[in-house]
Amino acid sequence: DEDGYFWYAGRTDDMMKVSGLAVWPTDVESVLANHPAVLESGVVGVPDKDGLTKPRAYVVLKDKSTASEDLARELQNFVKTNAQPHKYPRSVIFIDELPKTATGKIQRFKLRQMAQDQH
Q1: Virtual CA dihedral for 108, 112, 114, 119, nearest 10 degrees?
Q2: Domain presence at residue 112
Q3: Is 3 part of any domain?
Q4: Which of 3, 36, 70, 92 is least surrounded by CB atoms within 10 angstroms?
Q5: C-alpha distances in Å from residue 30, one per residue of 58, 95, 99
Q6: pLDDT tens profile 73-114
Q7: What are 22-40's pLDDT values in tens digits?
């Protein structure tokens, strides 16, 4: 605002602490949206084997036939190059569609549940 304050109008439960730094899913999603292969994505925090939170990206591709481990690594590197390196998704999962509300908002709680089920 005019006093130099930054106001965030989002859900604080979506924010993750990665390496002690705040990571908002929308930061990672907006970078991924600039990759030519990505239609859309949803990012959530997932605990690793040490209990530390790491970003995981669920990605819907424009051409689903291009899904591969090479493309997953390319997307990780794309985020590292175009955002702060700690924000890159440690895992990329390709899915056919993101769970959304009737108004089109990503249902991150369903992505978190998917991540939990994949453990």
Answers
A1: 160
A2: yes
A3: no
A4: 3
A5: 13, 18, 18
A6: 999 999 999 999 999 999 999 999 999 999 999 999 999 999
A7: 888 999 999 999 999 999 9
